Predict the 3D structure of the following.
Amino acid sequence: MKYNRLGQTDLQVSQICLGSMTWGEQNRAEQAFAQMDYAIEQGVNFFDTAELYAIPPKAETYGATETIIGRWLKQTGKRDKLILASKVCGPTDWCPHIRAGKAHLDRKNIIAACEASLRRLQTDPISTSTRPTGRIAPPTISANSVISTNASLMPRLLMKHWKLWPSWLNRARCLMSAYPMKRLGEPCSI
């Protein structure tokens, strides 16, 4: 397996990332366990999930994928073998079940989402991304709030690294003295 440095971090991630969005809806837990076992055997060390998975998102399967990964991590003890990325869901009208329809990217919601993800994953810090769909963040979201909240989660060991929308990079550079950041890289499909 080929590994690449993730942006300017010290993380070495496998060139292949294991996506998990169907686990808990289109795939059973047993199938997910087999896929994770196989991925580790092949040298994949980068798993991607999100609080809103399984897809399609609905109340009955909210958090199912993270729960399956958490059970697998507890059963196998292989947490030290992988880099785990999860994402916080931001405001959307198609997920009213997430945080009672108030899934905003503000301090309260980001912290609640990360804490809930860690409970489901039964693990230590995650690398997370604040819903980086598209290249431009919605204008209703405060860059300063998201940046300062994500930075505050690092000492609390809720996350190790985080990603911003590219349109916020200039704002982030202005805040770098207050919040230690390393660039993860350009938008990508994980």
About this structure: The beta strands are 3-5, 12-14, 17-19, 46-48, 83-87, 126-129, 159-163. Residues 134 and 165 are 8 Å apart (CA to CA). The mean pLDDT is 79. Helices lie at 29-41, 64-76, 107-121, 143-153, 169-175.
